[in-house]
Design the sequence.
């Protein structure tokens, strides 16, 4: 068997403080209700059960909380203590390092995190923990951030909307438990008011790295998120958009990839 080459480990969220986790939870926008409904409908119509949901790279638990009403058990896992602290503050019960039993998960979701994963290892482990007929859904809102000096390979993969995502049948050792015929790719375009954009941009890892490199400018008028917002507003006003009506159409394109484990 060939050994998968591990991508560089994500480092920014991993070292998030308690406060950074709380700020992320406060400002990161939740995903559109239609995204969740599309996923629940797909899982139902393809024979999925609703006992256990696993959210990998859960951060403060946006997806876990949104989907929780459909499931009896919900598990969120994440390597960042700052993120997990926020998840617990927002109602997560406890921290535990118990392994997830094989064959126990009905729906495994990864929201805006799979671009940091070692996908060959991910698919192999996902095949173990899922029940036969279980579903994997990976999605992201993409990103409009263009801070090239602060972009990691994972950020670029995200910005490209997962066009090069490794799938169970494209990894070096294909994971044959998944059904290639079941693969679905769905795309959306969402509109963002420019006033929200600044706070949403502040939840991204390139901005966290920019702020680390420019501590005196962070959270001031010189902050990168503030100057980007001002530039966008100016371009819009120059183009005749009225003040207060600045809306970026189709900015945050979202994509969701769904794969079923064979029944
Ligand atoms: C942009 S945040 C997304 C958090 C949450 N899923 C959401 O939708 O808001 C990316 C998350 O992936 C986590 N992460 C990074 N590398 C990971 C890995 N190898 N395995 C699991 N989670 C990872 C980070 O700690 C961070 O919480």
Sequence:
């Amino acid at each position: 068997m060939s050994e998968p080459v591990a991508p560089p480990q994500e480092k920014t969220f991993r070292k998030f403080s308690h406060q950074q986790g709380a700020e992320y939870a406060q400002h990161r926008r939740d995903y559109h209700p239609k995204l969740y409904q599309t996923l629940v409908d797909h899982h139902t119509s393809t024979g999925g059960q609703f006992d256990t949901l696993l959210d990998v790279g859960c951060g403060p638990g946006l997806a876990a909380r949104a989907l929780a009403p459909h499931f009896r058990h919900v598990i969120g896992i994440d390597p960042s203590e700052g993120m997990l602290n926020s998840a617990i503050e927002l109602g997560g019960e406890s921290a535990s390092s118990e392994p997830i039993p094989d064959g126990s998960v009905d729906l495994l979701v990864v929201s805006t995190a799979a671009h940091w994963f070692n996908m060959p290892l991910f698919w192999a482990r996902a095949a173990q923990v899922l029940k036969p007929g279980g579903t994997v859904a990976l999605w992201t809102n993409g990103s409009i951030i263009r801070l090239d000096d602060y972009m990691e390979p994972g950020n670029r993969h995200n910005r490209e909307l997962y066009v090069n995502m490794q799938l169970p049948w494209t990894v070096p050792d294909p994971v044959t438990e998944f059904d290639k015929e079941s693969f679905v790719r769905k795309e959306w375009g969402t509109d963002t008011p420019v006033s929200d954009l600044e706070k949403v941009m502040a939840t991204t890892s390139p901005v966290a790295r920019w702020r680390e490199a420019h501590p005196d400018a962070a959270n001031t008028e010189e902050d990168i998120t503030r100057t980007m917002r001002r530039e966008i507003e100016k371009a819009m006003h120059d183009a005749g958009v009225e003040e207060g009506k600045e809306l970026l159409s189709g900015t945050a394109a979202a994509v969701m990839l769904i794969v079923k484990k064979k029944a």
The chain is about 35% helix and 20% strand. The mean pLDDT is 90.
